Structures are given as C-alpha cells and as structure tokens.
Amino acid sequence: MSNADPIELEKFSQLAHRWWDQNSEFKPLHEINPLRLDYINRLAQLPGKSVLDVGCGGGILSESMAGIGAHVTGIDLGDKALQVAKLHLLESGKQVTYRKIAVEELAAEQPASFDVVTCMEMLEHVPDPQSVIRACSQLVKPGGHVFFSTLNRNPKSYLFAVIGAEYLLNLLPRGTHDYAKFIKPSELAQFSRNAGLNTLDLTGMSYNPISKVYLLGKDTDVNYIVACQRD
C-alpha cells in the first residue's frame, strides 16, 4: 500500500539534514509554525490530547505540539527526515513517537485512536490526496479534530507560491510545488465530506514580502488551513 511519489520523497530526502536550520529552505516552515500551532491549539485544546502528525518530516510541528503537552506520534515515509526528527529529540528533550508508515496502513492498524490528526503541507505532494483524507478520518476518534493545510489552485496561487516563492523571492527551492496538484478549498471540503468529516473553519495564510511576516486571515487564495471534525 503506497500513496507516495518517489520523486517527492527523494526531493525532501536530499534536504533532510537542513530541517532544523532556521535559515535553510525550511525557514518558511519555522516561521509559520507558531501560527499553525496556535490555530490548532485554539480549536482542539492540545494539552493532554493524543495527536497524530501525518507527513511530519523533521518534526517541527510534532515537537511544538508535544511542547505544550500533547502526546504526539509523527509518521512519514522519508527515512532521512525521520532520522533527523529522532536525533533532534536528543537536543530538545521533547517526547514524540516517530514511525515510518503510510497513513493508510496506520488507519488499518489503529482506527479511531487519536483525538487530533494534523496533515500539513502534504496533500499537494501525494498522488491520491483523497486517500490520505479518508485515512485521517479513520484515524481520529468520533468527535475528534482533523486539520489540513495546503495550497489553493488559481492564477494568484501560481504567481505567489510558485513564481514568487520559488523563483523571485527564493523562499523555497525551485520545483518544490507542482501547480497541478494544488487543491481548491471547495474540493478539499468535498473530499472531507466524503470521508465523514465536517468542516468547522477555513482560514487563509498570507505572506507580506515587504515586512516578511506571515499572517492568518481571510485570504485563502494561496495557502489555507481547514479544520474538520469527525461525525
């Protein structure tokens, strides 16, 4: 069972050693992480909750959720990223369980096991995002929260997320994103409904190139976060 693109895995594997370098290609992830953490915590009250971070990479979000008292499991299919995540725990002293396993496989193994499931910046990198969404729904307990973040698909998002971020501002390595894999909020809402999830909130994330500050708000044209709850 594999819903992964080998090219995407290799792309992030080559950068894995730089996950925790806040001036590296992962600088945007470090800068948006406090915003994402606050948003998730505000809606799901993370302390004491059992949380699954799908596509955890080097563990930036996983560690921050553990840092405020959540019991976190992070899963990914990238060996090098997981090695980096595990090594960083030695430095940070945080408690996170990391596993190399596909989300669909874990859903079959541990259905309805988590209070909260997060899947951030991953859907646009897999061949079948609907499969990931179904698995996330299967993994969360009834009444639990699921959070997705991804990129909208429209001319503005292509201009900002691909041309701007990758070629003009050099915020991300060139080739990071495939515009054809971007997902409109209406599509994500439909995928979520089909998986038994109710959409609670849709929030946009924008970047001001002048102030170099990221903000959460109503502008969902480029990056956005969706909060869902299982029936």
Automatic annotation (TrEMBL):
Its EC number is 2.1.1.222, 2.1.1.64. It is an enzyme of class 2 (transferase). GO terms for biological process: methylation. Keywords: Methyltransferase, S-adenosyl-L-methionine, Transferase, Ubiquinone, Ubiquinone biosynthesis. Signal peptide: none annotated. GO terms for molecular function: 2-polyprenyl-6-hydroxyphenol methylase activity; 3-demethylubiquinol 3-O-methyltransferase activity; polyprenyldihydroxybenzoate methyltransferase activity. S-adenosyl-L-methionine binds at R36, G55, D76, M120. Transmembrane segments: none annotated. Pathway: Cofactor biosynthesis; ubiquinone biosynthesis. It catalyses: a 3-demethylubiquinol + S-adenosyl-L-methionine = a ubiquinol + S-adenosyl-L-homocysteine + H(+); a 3-(all-trans-polyprenyl)benzene-1,2-diol + S-adenosyl-L-methionine = a 2-methoxy-6-(all-trans-polyprenyl)phenol + S-adenosyl-L-homocysteine + H(+). Belongs to the methyltransferase superfamily. UbiG/COQ3 family. O-methyltransferase that catalyzes the 2 O-methylation steps in the ubiquinone biosynthetic pathway. This is Ubiquinone biosynthesis O-methyltransferase.
